[in-house]
Structure to design on (449 residues):
């Protein structure tokens, strides 16, 4: 079932790049103040001998993808080594194929690699599937990018039956027989998308909260960020194990936002709330939403969705159902969403939405986006504090999937130096003045930029 448009991998190369942080990011009780990018180049050729090179980039994201008592340096080392071995496996893969098929075939090796690699590095803990996806995602992105570039087209226009050898039932199930990804993606990117700004757990809301100024010319408080970027979407990080603190935090954000937006003449803005799976059960979420509504009906109404509130291991916590909470607000699955089976289980447990992330792989993100649309679920796209190229990849994904409400992009807050060289090329993606990003520009060959 091969096609003349298929490609084979000529060479894959991996390098790492440090990411300096201007200020720490705190979530789920964990602090991130340093990281590095995994960058991958993939050169492909067609049966006719045409060549092109694609690029993929993603932060290692080990603190989020692999929460553990192990030293963060160790989990980062395993993830980097995993990414290197994915590249080695890819360099040995001889077949021609569509990127969906090549990635699908290679990913069959990930489970075994994730089990055996930690032992080789003297770590007595298997590598989580989420960490595997993140580590493999730069290669996956580079392959899709190269496929588009070798054909001189945007890769989102190369997922139909004219290009793909298999329909979606090959990767999902028979419900998708006869369907292809072109039915679930847009031929042109959404021209502009609202940007979700992250309000971290220790981020200052007012001048009184600033213990020591960063002093680099960027905003220091939430009000200053709203004014500078014209923000209308705020993602609020919460503790999940301190109800009073969580409610007070949302109400405090509401007070600052209301005052600042009034000064701008803005009366409509939105929140998402993220507990980073720290809530003990759904009752915590229900109590939280009810108390926010009691404290400020306006703040409650602004909550667009609730991000995964309870433990990521759904099978180990079958009582953590979300049916009651999902009647109040969309509840999206995030850390648990590692494959199609996880999506189906989440639906059974009452989750009504899906958080897509480019860091889980271009292939898996598109497949899960198709499934979520078919099942009528709420959709959002989030990042992994992605700077530069990785943010553009995340934005292109969001702009090509129907129904995405907004895009998250917080590298400009925590590690903006990673955006510098891309800001000059695409200022509309990085110089935010009206709360939106200019995703219309992401319409070039490959992943679009």
């Amino acid at each position: 079932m091969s096609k003349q448009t298929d490609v084979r991998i000529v060479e894959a190369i991996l390098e790492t790049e440090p990411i300096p942080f201007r200020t720490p990011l705190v979530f789920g009780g964990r602090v991130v103040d340093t990281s590095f990018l995994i960058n991958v180049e993939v050169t492909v050729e067609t049966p006719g001998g045409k060549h092109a090179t694609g690029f993929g980039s993603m932060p290692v994201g080990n603190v989020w993808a692999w929460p553990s008592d192990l030293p963060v340096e160790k989990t980062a080392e395993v993830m980097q080594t995993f990414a290197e071995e994915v590249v080695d496996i890819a360099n040995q893969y001889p077949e021609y194929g569509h990127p969906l098929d090549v990635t699908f075939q290679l990913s069959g090796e990930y489970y075994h690699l994730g089990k055996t690699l930690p032992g080789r590095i003297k770590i007595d803990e298997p590598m989580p599937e989420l960490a595997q996806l993140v580590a493999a995602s730069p290669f996956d992105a580079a392959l899709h990018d190269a496929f588009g570039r070798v054909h001189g087209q945007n890769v989102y226009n190369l997922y139909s039956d004219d290009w793909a050898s298999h329909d979606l039932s090959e990767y999902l199930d028979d419900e998708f027989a006869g369907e292809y990804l072109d039915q679930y993606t847009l031929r042109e990117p959404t021209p502009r998308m609202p940007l979700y700004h992250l309000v971290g757990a220790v981020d200052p809301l007012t001048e009184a909260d600033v213990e020591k100024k960063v002093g680099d010319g960027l905003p220091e408080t939430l009000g200053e960020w709203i004014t500078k970027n014209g923000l209308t979407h705020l993602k609020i990080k919460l503790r999940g194990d301190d109800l009073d603190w969580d409610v007070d935090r949302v109400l405090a954000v509401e007070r600052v936002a209301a005052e600042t937006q009034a000064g701008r003449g803005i009366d409509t803005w939105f929140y998402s709330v993220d507990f980073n799976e720290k809530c003990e059960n759904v009752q915590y979420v229900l109590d939280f939403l009810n108390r926010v509504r009691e404290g400020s009906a306006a703040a409650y109404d602004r909550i667009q969705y609730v991000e995964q509130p309870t433990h990521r291991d759904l099978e180990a916590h079958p009582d953590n159902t979300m049916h009651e909470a999902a009647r109040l607000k969309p509840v999206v699955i995030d850390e648990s969403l590692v494959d199609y089976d996880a999506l189906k289980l989440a639906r059974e447990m009452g989750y009504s939405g899906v958080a897509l992330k480019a860091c889980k792989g271009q292939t898996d993100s598109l497949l899960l986006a198709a499934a979520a649309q078919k099942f009528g679920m709420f959709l959002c796209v989030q990042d992994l504090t992605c700077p530069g190229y990785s943010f553009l990849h995340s934005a292109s994904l969001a702009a090509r999937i129907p129904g995405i409400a907004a895009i998250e992009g917080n590298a400009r807050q925590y590690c903006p130096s990673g955006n510098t060289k891309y800001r000059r090329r695409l200022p509309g993606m990085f110089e935010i003045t009206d709360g939106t990003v200019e995703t219309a520009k992401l319409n070039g060959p490959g992943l679009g930029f």
The chain has two domains: 8-170, 193-441. Residues 129-150 form the longest helix (22 residues).
